[in-house]
């Protein structure tokens, strides 16, 4: 059973018009902590601006410089130059809980569709598998495409991909 954490948003940045309570899985919390520890390069228990920005990006958030500075100032008002683990976990849990799953799937689709063709071909799937360190045979890749290629065009389009990700696909 997946455990969820209900985080109180007392430290929530820009929480106007937002529900201060949000739920994040224990897996997400572990991922957040792991990112903090990985990018705390000097092991001082704090992420400075650059460490913070890279850690957020690793968790899927490409935050602009101004917003990064505002977040640091909000969570560490004394210095505005770093963030501790507790505040980082609170912030990232909130950001993760606010994600729009369908938009995340569309972003993931674009990572596969690096040529911008609107489809994931066997070549694209093979490239991504290789980048992730997966060794799939051409036959396995072809089989994966065929299984979810509902319109029979030899590739996975964005709607088919979202259907796969949400489990709302038709055979």
From TrEMBL:
It comes from the Eukaryota. Residues 27-62, 100-135, 136-171 form the EF-hand domain. GO terms for molecular function: calcium ion binding. Keywords: Calcium, Repeat. It comes from Smittium culicis. Residues 1-21 are annotated as: Disordered. InterPro entries: CALM/Myosin/TropC-like, EF-hand-dom_pair, EF_Hand_1_Ca_BS, EF_hand_dom. GO terms for cellular component: myosin II complex. This is Centrin-3.
